[in-house]
TrEMBL record:
Gene3D superfamilies registered for this protein in UniProt: FAD/NAD(P)-binding domain
Pfam families hit by this protein: Pyr_redox_3 (PF13738)
Name of the protein this chain belongs to: NAD(P)/FAD-dependent oxidoreductase
Signal peptide coordinates: none
Amino acid sequence: MQTFQVLIIGSGFGGQCAAVNLLKAGIRDFCLLERRSFFGGTWCQNTYPGAAVDVPSPLYSLSFAPYRWTQMYADQAELHRYTRHVVEHFGLRDKVRLEANVERIEWDDIAKHWAVHTGSEGTFYAQFLINATGPLSQPVIPHFEGQERFQGKTFHTNNWDHSYDYKGKRVAIVGSGASAAQVIPAIAPDVQHLHVFQRTAHWVLPRADRTFGRFQRWLLGLKPAYKLLRWLIYWQFETRVIAFKYSKPAIRMVQRHALHFLQRQVPDPKLQRKLTPDFTIGCKRVIVSSTYYPALQRPNVSLHSREQGIASIDASGINTLDGEHLDLDLIIWSTGYDATDGVISYPVSGKNGVQLRDVWAQYPRAYLGTSLPGFPNLFIVTGPNTGIGHTSALFIIESQMNYILDCIRTLKEKDLRSIEVRPEAERTYTDMIHREMERTVWKSGGCHSWYQSKSGHVIAMFPGFSFSYYRLTRTLKPADHILS
């Protein structure tokens, strides 16, 4: 019988952060379940050309694991190395079970534990369960008539096929969001022709990247210097919430800056119009790139707007809405993830057999974005309304750990077996979240984005300062919970 005090599902930064915090709390009886054949999550899975972080590396890192970064915005390869650094430094490798794909989980109210059913690795049991699968782990590929007949190569950016040589090929990339904006400049110089299918234009801001010299990297190895730099970057980025929520003049100023950047980089008025969004900046994820606009102006790159979008796909390529046929060798799907309604991809059965999919039928919701009534001892890392559009997601993840570890510690001290949030506490919290959301650009900015669920509620984002979330998660509120 594979029994642990704590099971962590997912081995990305969320899972690693949970594991290290458990170790610091003196809890060693835990296991990480990873569905893939390798440890590490997003930055080991997303290996597409040009992949990089869009938050400065000293902030996009775990506070307890400083690192001598080579550049301000780390690329995928360096983030992969950082992941390995965390795993090795804290001895996590022996705590993971690879190729353990979770198929369903069930709460046993008599035994007061979770049963986690996997495919090849069998069933695991644990008193506490931490879901750290992340919001960007379920790729979405839209359906077009005839796409199964295409004889060329296709893949999603999340599953880049490095065995396929795209050089000299006729390529289409479907999507123009954050991943596409990184892929396009990386592959455009090497392909015969690149067709970019843009459903909606995105706001773009310049990327203030820089390479760290030897002395600067030495400074990053000093904990006080690293901590100081993290906090300087943190407060610089934290002010962005003022524009996203509190100040229309501030967001108009940022939008003017983005518009001037577009005009400077794209002199052609016709292309400018194609690339000018019709919504307020921030409503959708802002792209941070200084190479995206220049790549779109290459002679071997064609930008297809919504009116020139995909009508159907056949054996040899794409038929566009304006009657053109494009012969292609490769179609790249850069079409995002199910980051709201698909926060947890496997079936979850709580107390009395209640199904999570039924609880979330209207829209996903959770107390502190972390726990749910009727699902004791279950904690969701980067759950509903924990996304952060202006700073590092890892700050939010570390804040969640305060709450999760406090729950586990409290049960241990009281010699109890389960904890769950009260329905009224979750309802009060969720009502507050969506009341505050009405004031944000994510709700009122005039767009439909992946931040929103099918219901129209903004599910991905937290509507305020990240330090406000930290304060909410800092200590457990016993009155909000049922302990047994």
